[in-house]
Amino acid sequence: MCSFQIRWSPNHGPRRGAEVDTIVLHATGDDSLQGAVEWLCDPASRASAHFVVGKKGEIVKLVPLGRAAFHAGRARLPNGGAAVNRRSIGVELVNRNDGKDPYPPQQRMALGGLLRKLVAAYPIRFLVGHHEIALPRGRKTDPRGLDIAALARDLGLKS
Fold first, then answer.
1. 109 and 103 in contact (C-beta within 8 Å)?
2. CB distance 146 to 152 below 8 Å
3. pLDDT value at position 2?
């Protein structure tokens, strides 16, 4: 995998044999890697992701890939599949999610490297934003301003 720091979050559960076929991209809603990691590692948040990618390209791994991170909430995959947390890998990007906050080159490069490693290791079919799968539709807007379709094309995936 890519070079990353590890800070284990308690907010995960079993995959129960589900095949991982999707990567869900999120935005943290603020501009602090430390704040995002603290929140996602707090048992009271009941939320996490497998990875957080900082603005300078830092990557923090929060949940083992063999476990289901609590990142999607109520959601449905592009192929209609449910149990999204069990079938996906969640990646948070440090970003205010206002559509104006940029995703700097270092962050995009780190994300690209991470995505390539994940696609090589798992039978990934879909790369989606949280806003595309969250139910009810319109409940989530992240990751605003990120060109997911271009990332998916670069990886040979559906978005």
1. no
2. no
3. 65
**What is the number of alpha carbons within 13 Å of residue 87 lying toward its C-beta?**
20
Task: Give the span between the Cα atoms of 150 and 30, in whole angstroms.
Answer: 24
CA 32 – CA 19 distance, rounded (Å)? 32
- Are the C-beta atoms of 92 and 35 separated by less than 8 Å? no
The amino acid sitting at 157 is: L
Provide the whole-model pTM: 0.96
Residue with tokens 């592009």: 78
Q: What CA–CA distance (Å, rounded) separates 139 from 9?
A: 24
Among residues 117, 116, 94, which one has the least CA distance to residue 36?
94
Write out pLDDT tens, residues 31-88. Answer: 999 999 999 999 999 999 999 999 999 999 999 999 999 999 999 998 888 899 999 9
Tell me if 42 sits within 8 A of 95, measured CB to CB: no
Burial code (b: 16+ CB inside 10 Å, e: under 16) for 85-112 equals: bbbbbbbbbbbebeeebebeeebbebbe
